[in-house]
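PT: before anyone asks, these are the final sequences, not the draft ones from last week. 466 residues across everything. Please model them as a single complex and drop the result in this thread when it's through.
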Amino acid sequence: MNVLSCSINTLNGLYDISGVEVGQHFYWKIGGFQVHGQVLITSWVVIAILLGSATLALRNPQTIPTGGQNFFEYVLEFIRDVSKTQIGEEYGPWVPFIGTMFLFIFVSNWSGALLPWKIIQLPHGELAAPTNDINTTVALALLTSVAYFYAGLTKKGLGYFGKYIQPTPILLPINILEDFTKPLSLSFRLFGNILADELVVVVLVSLVPSVVPIPVMFLGLFTSGIQALIFATLAAAYIGESMEGHH
Amino acid sequence: MANMIMASSKTLITSPPTPKSKHQPLPQPSVSLPLPLPLIKPRFSLSITPKSLAAAALVAASVAATPLPSLAVEIEKAQLFDFDLTLPIIAAEFLFLMFALDKVYYSPLGNFMDGRDAEIKEKLSSVKDTSSEVKQLEEQAAAVMRAARAEISAALNQMKKETATEVDAKLAEGRKKVEAELQEALAGLEKSKDDTIKSLDSQIAALSQEIVNKVLPVQ
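LR: through. Structure below.
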């Protein structure tokens, strides 16, 4: 018994050192419902960063862009390019959706890696990237589902549902299943990647608190960017897929 | 996966704030887990004997070490995958961000960039137009130059012709004058020759008379 409790104590100590607080939330109560306070706080910060920098950089656009305006023009070109490649010529109305998807996820992921959230102590749980929480990723994935249904229905009316029995009615169950797997894979891909990133970094820092975790941190930054791009590209691809003709 | 479970199971061990939890790790989770608990747990929370403690520790160790599927799902549902009002709030925040960014970023900057593109294209095409105009003007200039050149050469030719006739006339006149003078001079020369010959004849007669007088004895 001594041995066992001892091992649990050492385990305990390890957890305390590493300070991994996964699945712990800073709960707020709103009208009898629980919300994850830390997710909302960080998402507000992300939104403030995005809106603030955009407003600041674009308050007086110049014909020959410099500095911030140049950067935002480049980002807009990039978003337009992604939307155009995936959706096609009618990409115009979807630029805000795809762009916000990309920017929100990207800034969220990077904020988790770059902003020193740990300085702010919460009573319970800890501040981290908003995409670290399954609620965020599922919300974004469900919005994507709504978006591609909306795109298909406005483009083709009820004829949109004809795609479920194409090319043959035998594929009906699989086609219906696809509508569930799309948001599921979207949300879990993002959630898993970001959570795994933070876990790997935290565990490595707890084990070797010197230069060793730095390459992993850079890898985390890279992965975060890639995940944002993948999410936005896939959302655009789904929208484009539901808008294209099945003739 | 094992990471997550270990991390999630951490709450089983550390989340209670009392220091007592270090020694009695398992009885607490009934607080943090939702209602449908696995059957084993209430039993632990009720029993306090050292034996059951050992058993609890054993279970805890096994939970931490091996992924027991049913238990793992139960714990993760409680910790990692608890959906609540955060989800719709985030969705609403996203929609707000989308409209706000559209207002301050996508639409204004997009319109600005499109306008600039159109302006540049327009300027380029207008430059192309003026280049054709320039070509026309150049042709005109070349034509003017040609005409001027032709005019000048014509005037030059005419002037040349005029001077040539004038010079010819003067030349002929001069030649005539010179010829007349020559004729005159020749006539004067002839006349003086005749005079000389005439005077010579008279002298010859006188001289021959004298010679005769000298040669022939006087009678």
